[in-house]
Design goal:
The chain has 201 residues and is of the alpha+beta class. It contains five helices and eight strands.
Length: 201
């Protein structure tokens, strides 16, 4: 896993993946996050007690930065570049939360196609799997995607991630999100892999 992260940071994620598709990586990440939480002894606390547990700092602000990869017919027109994001989250309890995510993804045009920038905003539901100072999570939601050049269209995103608390108000982690946009003609699809820094308050 650490070797994979080193390759990601050096900008060479796609050769590592090899024959594995990013969709399989997403499914694998969800599985690992879930199993990590369930296998931790601290997660033996009754489920209903964890769900009802109050959160002293329910609000959080996260900064996201990383790379993206275009998929399908969109991948024939552009190649991945950088991906940025910021989210504001409210956590109802130790398990459930909702976030507003604002993101920006840039893609390099191929064969005469201009570079494309995608700005998007989404409202997502999140389910956490707490395991001591570490947490895995999955998320899903809907939003609006603005293409420059292009139009504004409706889409959705699903994702998974892992975070580790540095102190009570700060955590770092990684996340992987899949975006699907209902553009005219063929749909637009892409993945975004982020390093995440979260501040709770």
């Amino acid at each position: 896993m650490l070797n994979g992260l080193v390759w990601v940071c050096s900008g060479q994620i796609w050769p590592i993946v090899g024959e594995m598709t990013m969709r399989r990586v997403l499914i694998l990440s969800v599985t690992v996050a879930t199993l990590t939480a369930w296998s931790n002894p601290e997660s033996a606390e009754p489920t209903d007690a964890r769900v009802r547990a109050p959160i002293e700092q329910p609000w959080s602000l996260s900064l996201h930065g990383g790379v993206n990869d275009s998929q399908g017919s969109f991948g024939n027109l552009v190649s991945g570049d950088f991906s940025l994001g910021i989210d504001l989250e409210y956590r109802f309890n130790s398990t459930f939360a909702v976030e507003v995510f604002l993101g920006h993804d840039s893609f390099d045009g191929e064969s005469g196609i201009p570079d494309i920038d995608v700005s998007h905003i989404a409202v997502n539901s999140k389910a956490y799997f707490p395991a001591g100072s570490n947490e895995g999570y999955v998320l899903a939601g809907f939003g609006s995607y603005n293409f420059d050049p292009g139009s504004t269209d409706f889409g959705f995103n699903v994702g998974t991630g892992f975070e580790s608390r540095v102190n009570p108000s700060t955590a770092w982690g990684v996340s992987l999100r899949y975006h699907y946009v209902d553009t005219s003609g063929d749909s637009t699809q892409f993945y975004a892999l982020h390093a995440v820094l979260r501040f709770t308050f």
